[in-house]
Amino acid sequence: MMIARFPTIDEWADHVADQFVALLNAKPNARLCLPTGNTPLPVYERVAAAVRDRRVSFCEAEVFLLDEFGGVPADAAGRCDVMLRRGLIDHVDLPEDRYHRIDTHAGDVDASARAYDARLHPAFDLTILGIGANGHIGMNEPGAPVDSPTRRVDLAQETMDGAERYFGGTHRPTWGITVGVKPLLASREVWLLATGVSKAPVLQRLATEPVGPPLPASYLHVHPNCTLFADAAALPGRATLEVAT
Ligand code: PGA
Questions:
Q1: Alpha helix positions (H), 56-180
Q2: What is the pTM of this model?
Q3: Which residues participate in catalysis according to the annotation?
């Protein structure tokens, strides 16, 4: 895992957004797996500005949602689809049919997850991930196997508690559908984003614990092209991250 560490969130976001713009300009039809949550918002804001300034375009790209909460109304403020639209999709020139959402309202949720998994080939060119305080990536919670496909998952307690900040207390999802660890690791390139002091303990765990199911983000250590982009608050006093095996 490569490490890129920035003194401030602004410098972090400028850099990640510049990298994103460069990647999309180099491969305009890139297949992108994108997260929601609060972490990527400053990056998305800058990418949207780059599209407005005609420095990049999403018109040939494909965007796949990383995960989605189940059991809540389709238009709930904290739904991943709603958050990604609000943060990025509504502000860029991505054609509607190139934006791939996860259907959690289907009668057969497992079949819906399998159908989404089947659309993840060829592999993503770029996957961007946040990291949960418990080490989850997407909704791959502690215990997720390295070869897990896209599937319905029960949320960990911390994730249910944390989701309240997205839903403003109106809904409390207990499950979701997530792109599995297997398709995430198949991505050509992975960027793990972490900012703020609240992420420091989990990044410390990432630096010291073995690769395995208790810390799903640790699987990224075995990915050949993964970069952790962090600010100094999330990665205090640390210039490199050891790979724990
Ligand atoms: P956050 O969520 O970006 O809102 O901190 C990250 C995550 O839980 O994966």
A1: 80-87, 109-118, 157-167
A2: 0.96
A3: 67, 134, 136, 141
